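User: Could you check the structure of this?
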Amino acid sequence: MAYVDWMIEGPKIASCNCDYGCPCEFNAPPTHDVCEGLEAMEIKQGHFGEVRLDGLRFAAAYRWPGPVHEGGGIVQGFIDERADANQRDALLKIVSGLEQEPTTAFNIYGSTIEKEYDPVFTAIEFRCDVEARTGGLTVPGHLQLSIEPIRNPVTGRPHRAQIRLPEGFEFREAEMASGTFTGTGEIRFENAKCYAFFTYVAYGPQGVIDVRS
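Assistant: Sure, the predicted C-alpha cells are below.
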C-alpha cells in the first residue's frame, strides 16, 4: 500500500506510573493494575508530504485499565497551537495512526484505545536535556511533568541506566530517568518518582527510522 511520504525526527520524553524500567518494555504486566502516563515530542525536522513540521510539538495523556495490549484505553492528544491548519491536519493523521503500517507505534497504541477525547490545540512547553537526564512538559490546564535523574539510595548521586531494544517499535535506545507528573484535564492522575525516559527518534510510514541525534 502506498502512503503519504512523511517523517518526524526529534527528542521524545515520556513517563508512566510503572517502576523504573517499565515491565512493558520486557513483555511483562505493568507494575500496577492500571497503566497511565504521558508523552511528548519536539519535531526537530519533519514533513507530511509538502507540509513542513519543523519545530512543532505534540503530547498525549493516556490510561489503560490493565496491560496495554488488552485494550480498553483512553487518550487525549495535544497539538502545538503554533501549527497552522495544514500542519494540524498532518500531525493528527500521524498521531492517529493514519498513513502508516499497522506495526508503527502510533498505530499499535491506537488499536488499544476505546475512547479518545477531542484533541486540544494549545501551548506546549517542552524541556529535554538527555545528558543531564532532566526535562519536563507543561500543557496549561492539562499536564505537568518533571523529569530528573534516578538517584542512588545510599549516596544520592545520579544513577545512569539505558534500555536498548534493537527491534523496538517506539525507540531503539532510551535513557532512563525518574518522572513526577499530574493530569488535571479530562484524564486525571498524580504519580511521583516513576519510570521516565528520554530518547531521540524518527518515525515514518514503516515505523522507527534509525538516526543519530
